[in-house]
Amino acid sequence: MNWSNVRLIFRREVRDQLRDRRTLFMIVVLPILLYPLLGMSLFQVAQFIREQPTRVLLLGAEYLPRTPALIVDEQFAPALINDPQRQRLIELHFAEVPAADAPERARRAVEQGDFAAVVSVPADFARRLELFRRDLSQRTDREPRTVPAAEVRVPGPAIYYNTAKEKSQLAYLRVTKVLDRWTDEIGRENLKSSDLPESTARPFTLAEHDVADEGQRKAVVWSKILPFLLLIWALTGAFYPAVDLCAGEKERGTLETLLSSPAERSEIVWGKLLTVMLFSVVTAALNIFSMGLTGALVMSQFPGIGPPPLWAPIFLLAALLPVSALFSALCLALAAFARSSKEGQYYLMPVLLVTMPLVLLPMSPGVELNLGNALIPITGVVLLLRTMLEGEYWQALPMVLPVAGVTILCCLFSIRWAIDQFNCESVLFRESERWDLGLWLKHLLRDREETPSATEAVFCGVLILLVRFFMSFALPQPESFRDLAVLTMVTQLVVIGTPALLMTIMLTRSPAKTLSLRLPPLASVPAAVLLAVALHPLGNGLNHLVQRLYPVSERMQQSLTSLLADPPGAWQMVLVLGLVPAVIEELAFRGFMLSGFRRMGHKWRAIALSSFFFGITHAIFQQSIIACLLGMLIGYLVVQTGSLLPGIAFHFVHNSLALLATQATPAFVREHEWLRAMGLSADEGLSYGWAVMFMGTALAVLLLAWFRGLPYARTSEERLQEAIDQNVSQPALGS
């Protein structure tokens, strides 16, 4: 790669962007003005925001006891309200109605909106309360009880409110606070009447000690705000320049001139990427600076909240660079795919829909920085920043490398995707077209090819996910192995198998080629079976590792254990849960979908995409991770052998061994000496010794090397892509 060309393209793109006054305003001027204006507006609006009084109706006031008093001068007693100024927030009204009509009157008053809440005091409340006190005093003095226990029960006041109305909810909260304090006063009066100290009801108080220093308490608020703003503005700052540099150049007709220059496509991508990244960093930095400065002044008016920590800019800048590179590469690839600036702007919402859950997940209660969460893209960055801003450096330090590694890996994949987009002429020069449903359907059925297209493969995967989602609500949860067997058969045949087979018949001319239904090399099927056996110890260990990183809930674990605890027979369990998924899932994911994705011209990309859909089809997250890795291996076997049979054989043996492993109890392992000799243990789930795992992995490596030596049949798109890559790399080698 010629970095002088990259520098020239970078300078060209930056110069073009700086000539646009709207770009300069959005990046430089708007962040400086936005947050001070928002702060001024906040103070202005705060003058008009005041708490309004709520109308409360009290029924049965004549039944209230004199002490402790609930009502004083037709208002709640001031002693029951902490702040006397808040007494005016409850506008109290009174009405006398027969006791039998009180519930209906109270309900109607709230439903019609005449009052925000209604408090109804039961008839003879004061008399019954006095009887209760007498009974309590007699039991304390050890005198004979004069009142039976059934008659000393005191029915309490009832409060009526409407949760569908916010004003009614507010009235409920205000009134219940007063009534709770009044109830406490009644309890104290009862203790006094029985000659008992007040400490009898509450003999001790909870001593609270906040060990956080003042800086940590102030940093808690900023640790949630600053990482969120950093990522959102980094994404926003990268998106619009990327759309202008790609889709905008298509509209202006200047992209062809750039592509015809001596610069390679990768150099063009790097030049544009650095430009987009520059604007992303500047946009995020200016917004964070302006927001931090304004927030420090505004938040200083609130007790307990101060300015952001002084070291916050260092952490934010360190995280901003890789995050901006990731978002810039993603936005650049999407912008290259767009035909116009208008279409490119439509892609912002899907990107936000994917990014927002990853950004908001760390704000959920209970989500902490650990190795499992650190391996989640974007989420790990937010958690790491939050932990650093809170001052937990020793907790954050071990997670720096995992978070940085995942982020850099995602950056590399995104940059590679952007380069591939620029290397594809059909993507760069897509023309706008009118879409007609009838003509589109005729084209699909009339102009069928031997294998599906990549778009049809994506549609098949999305269709399977949608059908599975709605079927999960229609089918009951299994409670026995029989229910699990029925659910598995319906899911495999209806949800996964039917869409793939129907699309194969309707959209392709060669179902056998689409589904890779051909004879493989003679030794490939036994080799696939042996490979599944050899990798079983490693897969079992990987499964334990995934469950340690992302623990399965105890409820789900008990449910899965109970379903497989007493199957009707091992062969039935293997047939239903092992063979049927192996056949149906391979036909769908390594048959139809893998054939469609191979039309893009990249073998490993096709394998990865089909494995991704295979993984997310599994309902349990931990299973999805294992299934995605398993799908990569099975896809490689299918591509190398050109047949689906080795994939089915591997899948079946893998499922069968995993199912049989669930039946290995500690007693069963102790009864068989050869199992203990292999280092097997079933105390906390089946686990293998390191020696068995090492030998199995070594054998698997040898078998994979054998599969790699098989001459696999390339598609026409893969041969074309290899020729393009060779032609692109030859000038670089010569230079």
Walk me through this protein's architecture.
The protein has helices at residues 3-18, 21-46, 102-111, 125-141, 166-193, 214-252, 255-259, 265-299, 312-337, 341-346, 348-360, 371-374, 379-389, 393-396, 400-423, 425-428, 437-446, 454-474, 481-507, 511-514, 524-549, 554-563, 570-597, 603-616, 621-641, 645-661, 666-671, 673-677, 690-708, 716-734, and strands spanning 54-59, 71-72, 75-76, 90-95, 117-120, 158-161. Mean pLDDT is 81; it is low at 144-151. The strands form two sheets. A four-stranded mixed sheet has the order 4-1-5-6, sandwiched between helices. Strands 2-3 form a two-stranded antiparallel ribbon. The protein contains 30 helices and six strands. The radius of gyration is 35 Å and the shape is globular. The protein is mainly alpha-helical and 735 residues long. It folds into three domains: 54-200, D-Maltodextrin-Binding Protein, domain 2; 213-428, no CATH class; 444-734, no CATH class. The termini are close together.
